[in-house]
């Protein structure tokens, strides 16, 4: 990260030179440049290779971008990756093996793909509902039924016996929030959580929902202090998880 493309170019070339001294090589095909409207566009060349400028890219398994709809695209991407993982195992899910084995396989190989990194997302009821709809479709595929069978969601869940994806995500979020709030090592996670926009004008319209908005609704504006009491935080988390699990049913 840099305040100008000139500084970024210097940093990258220094990294490339030092890497070569110890026998390492930067992968220029995977090195991308992204900048905002406050930067004057100019090419960045490292080791004789002009780096590609992009609006978004996948970093540590998640889409990183400067737009406001990054989470919507990431939800769609997680659903696609979930179906890809499900498709590779479809011959097992559609076989005659006991349902408890299918459920265990789903929990080990599909659900983690769909929920990867979700503890850092800013969730809305609509985004959660899209994930729940995708999971219901996978459950029907495992059971060999379709929408035409007109089975109730509760009946499908009782037969498939899979963990509700909203329950898994909300539990991960609550645990991660408590973990970040209790950190004392001054790492970036807590710094980002406490960061506030510098004083000055902002764009017209309703400000975007913060990541901690639903945490504040359940634990109050001083939720980071509440999280220091692990027993209290755990008890509050049960109601938080229940709320997201029931959302959109």
From TrEMBL:
<protein>
    <recommendedName>
        <fullName>Endonuclease-reverse transcriptase</fullName>
    </recommendedName>
</protein>
């Amino acid at each position: 990260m840099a305040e100008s493309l000139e500084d970024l170019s210097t940093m990258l070339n220094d990294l490339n030179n030092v890497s070569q001294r110890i026998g390492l090589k930067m992968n220029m095909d995977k090195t991308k440049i992204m900048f905002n409207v406050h930067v004057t566009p100019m090419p960045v060349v490292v080791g004789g290779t002009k780096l590609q400028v992009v609006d978004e890219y996948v970093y540590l398994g998640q889409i990183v971008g400067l737009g406001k709809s990054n989470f919507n695209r990431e939800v769609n991407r997680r659903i696609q990756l979930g179906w890809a993982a499900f498709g590779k195992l479809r011959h097992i899910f559609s076989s005659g093996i006991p349902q408890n084995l299918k459920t265990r396989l789903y929990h080990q190989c599909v659900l983690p793909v769909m929920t990867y990194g979700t503890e850092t997302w800013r969730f809305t009821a609509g985004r959660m509902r899209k994930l729940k709809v995708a999971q219901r479709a996978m459950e029907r595929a495992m059971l060999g039924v379709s929408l035409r069978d007109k089975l109730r969601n509760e009946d499908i869940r009782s037969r498939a016996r899979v963990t509700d994806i909203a329950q898994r995500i909300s539990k991960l979020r609550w645990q991660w929030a408590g973990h970040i709030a209790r950190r004392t090592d001054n790492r970036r996670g807590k710094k980002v959580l406490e960061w506030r926009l510098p004083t000055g004008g902002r764009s017209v319209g309703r400000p975007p929902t913060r990541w901690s908005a639903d945490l504040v609704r359940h634990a109050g504006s001083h939720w980071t202090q509440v999280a220091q009491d692990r027993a209290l935080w755990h008890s509050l988390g049960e109601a938080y998880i229940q709320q997201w699990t029931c959302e959109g049913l």
